[in-house]
Amino acid sequence: MHGQGIQQYAVLRYESEEKCVPGNHPRRALRYVMWAACIFVGVTTWAAIQPDRQVAITIDDLPAGNALNMSAAEISDLTSRLLAALREQKIPAVGFVNEKKLYKIGEVDERIKALAVWVDSGFELGNHTFSHASLNQVGLKAWEDEIVQGETVTRMLLTQHNMKLRYFRHPYLDTGRDLGTRQGAEAFLVARGYRIAPVTVDAWDWMYARVYEDARKRGDTALQQDLLRSYLTYTDAVFAYDEQLSKELVGYEPKQILLLHANQVEADHLGELVEVIRKRGYRFISLEDALSDQVYSLPDTYVGEEGTDWLDHWAITRGKPPQGRPVFPAWVIERSKALSRPTPAPQLIAEESHPPGPALNSSSAGGSLAGVGARRTEGETPSGQPARCRRYPSATVLRASASPGLSSQRDSRTSRARRHPAGSMPNKCRCLWLKSCSDAMSGERAVAENPSLHPQCLLLPDWHPCIRG
Question: What gap in Å lies between CA 113 and CA 63, rounded to an integer?
Answer without folding.
Answer: 10
